[in-house]
Amino acid sequence: MTPVITAFAASPDKGRGLARDMRVRWAFEEVGRPYEVRLVSFAEMKQPAHRALHPFGQIPTFEEGGLALFETGAIVLRIAESRPGLLPADPDQRSRAIQWMFAALNTVEPPIVEREAAGYAERDRPWHAERLPMMDERVTKRLADLSARLGDAEWLDGEFSAGDLMMATVLLRIKGSTLLEAQPNLAAYLARAEARPAYRRAFEAQRAVFLKAQGG
C-alpha cells in the first residue's frame, strides 16, 4: 500500500521548502519509496477528520494501512526503517543517527523557531528589540556547538543519515542569515544537503504545489 501524507494546500512558506512536509517528502525520496500527498486547507486542518490523524491540527500526517502517525520525527523514522538509505545497518551507528534526529528537533530547532516566531508576532512590540539579542545568542550558542562537533566532516556521523536530513531542514530556516554564515562549515554542510538529488526532487514536488496554487 502506498503511504499517504498530508501537506498544506496553500503553504505559508511560499514554496521555499520550509513547511515540515518537506522532511517527509525528502525521506521518501532518499529511500526511493513512492508516496501520495493529500493537500489540506487551514480550515480542514482544524476539522475532526484531520484532528483524528493529528490531534494538534497541523501537518504533516502519515497513513499506511491501519497506521496513522503525526510528528515529523516519528514519520521520518518510520520511513527510514522501512528501506535502506537513511539508517546504518550497524546498531551503534544506527542509534547515533537517531540521536542526531532528536538533537535536531529538541536542541537545535527550538531556539531557531522561537526567534522566527518572535519576528512574526512581536516585531511591533516594544520589548522585541530587547529580546532579539538574547534569542540570537541562544541560536549562536547552539550553532557554535554543532559547528565544533561537525568540524571538517562531510556529515554528522559517517554517511548521510536521517539525522543529517532532520538537521539540514532545521538549518534551512536560517539559510542565508548572518547567524548561519558565521559558521562556514555549517553553511557548506547545508549546501551539500541541498545538492542531494533526493532533496531536489522533494523540493520541486513541494514547490509545484505552491506554483499551482498561484496559477503558475
Low-confidence stretches: none
What string, H for helix and E for strand, traces the elements in order?
A: EHEHHEEHHHHHHH
Quickly count the domains: 2
| Count of alpha and pi helical runs | 10
Radius of gyration: 18 Å
Q: Give the overall shape, derived from the CA principal axes.
A: globular
CATH fold-level label of the largest domain: Glutathione S-transferase Yfyf (Class Pi), Chain A, domain 2
Counted beta strands: 4
How large is the share of residues in beta strands? Answer: 5-15%
User: If you average the pLDDT, what whole number results?
Assistant: 94
Main beta sheet:
4 strands, mixed
Q: How much helix, percentage-wise, in residues? A: 55-70%
CATH architectural type of the largest domain: Up-down Bundle
Strand order of the largest sheet: 2-1-3-4
**Level-1 CATH class name of the largest domain:** Mainly Alpha
**Separation of termini?**
32 Å
